[in-house]
Amino acid sequence: MALPQWIWLIYTFAVGCCVGSFLNVVIYRLPKEKSLIKPGSFCPACNKHIRFYDNIPLISWLILGRKCRYCKAPISPRYFVIELLTGLMFVSTYYLFFSSPLRTGMPNFTEGGWLLYLLTIILLSALIASSAIDLELWIIPLSICWVVTAAGLIISAIAPIVIDPAIIDGYRLLPYASAKTSALAAGAAFGLGISLLLLFTGILKQSYEFPEESISKSEPEVEPKSKTEPRINHRLEVAKEVLFLLPIVVCSYAAYRLTAEFGTARDFWIDFSQKPLVAGLLGSVFGYFIGCGTVWATRILGTLGFGREAMGLGDVHLMGAVGAVIGPVAVVVAFFIAPFFGLGWAIFQMFFKKIRQIPYGPFLSIGTFVAIILHNAIYDYFFTVLGYK
């Protein structure tokens, strides 16, 4: 007998809170380059091991009165907020996928929907962790982005084994490449390999990499506690990034032309690229490059225009990971939704904290969640209005 839905929702919320407890470990330890497994949970103030009954998500924080049992040091509200937010994310995503009319075409949980749900909560959990770290330290750990990217590539490739490929493609449940976009993706991947090889051999130089002695200490500090920065020609630095991207663009275009104009290559590629596993994998690869490219183009153009570094490379990797999961169209929409959430925060910071820069990762994350909610509306618009294929 099927269990009532409310039981599933409570169970999903509880699992989400437990995952949120682990995300708190990631948020605290990953920037410090500490193991996420050993040692077990401990109080940062007194280093006492936290017993299991003091480590129950949400409940323990309330029962302990927001203080360590042993040293009475305050426990940050962040722990409670992350656990609650993750639990709500788990349950709201479950409801969106399997009960809400906003997402049509979604297979039942036991008929392959579980795989789509798993990939989505991996992405959203990673966005919660990276956003919390970005808010506190102004960095996005690349390891988080790489885990999500790998999950997107693998699950997009194997999903057609579990779910009918026609349903995946028809409802755009996962990235799924046509022959044209798969050629662009394969060429870009080949070009990325060339760029990484040139970077590894030293032919290409990494941007914003300076020896310690290049830091100038001749200029007075603007603020007493600010650190002096090296004299940087930002336009020159992003020119290095343009050179890095050049093989990717050239190889992507060459692969597209090769498979479009030469009959033998075209016939082979159409047959090969439309195999479900290949179409799923290259669809995810294409989404990755579109996600990276959208942010990277903004970074390059902004830096060339204003003479200061615009956006961070962490944002590039983050949206690449998002694109590998939700596809090329939705990731672009997510990127353009994000500024609407960031604008209010930026205004508040400028007037009350006199800070003109903001960590953009959290707003990219919110934009991504909105794009996931509006998935059907986004693709309906691109299909019916713009004729997107």
Key features?
globular; mainly alpha; 14 helices; 389 residues; 2 domains
Oligomeric state of this protein: single chain
Strand tally, please?
Answer: 0
* Global mean pLDDT: 88
Major β-sheet profile:
none
Content of β-strand: under 5%
Radius of gyration: 23 Å
Poorly predicted segments: 212-228
The total count of helices amounts to 14
Structural class: mainly alpha
Proportion of residues in helical segments? 55-70%
Your description of this structure?
The protein has 389 residues and is mainly α. The chain has two domains: 96 residues, no CATH class; 222 residues, no CATH class. Helices cover 67% and strands 0% of the residues. It is built from 14 helices and no strands. The longest helix has 31 residues. It is globular. The two termini are 42 Å apart. About 4% of the residues have low confidence.
How are the elements arranged and paired?
Blueprint: H1 5-29, H2 59-63, H3 77-98, H4 113-137, H5 142-162, H6 165-170, H7 179-201, H8 234-261, H9 263-273, H10 276-306, H11 313-326, H12 328-353, H13 361-373, H14 375-384
Helix pairs in contact: 1-3, 1-4, 3-4, 4-5, 4-11, 4-13, 5-10, 5-11, 7-8, 7-10, 8-9, 8-10, 10-11, 10-12, 11-12, 11-13, 12-13
Task: Briefly say what this structure is.
The protein is mainly α and 389 residues long.
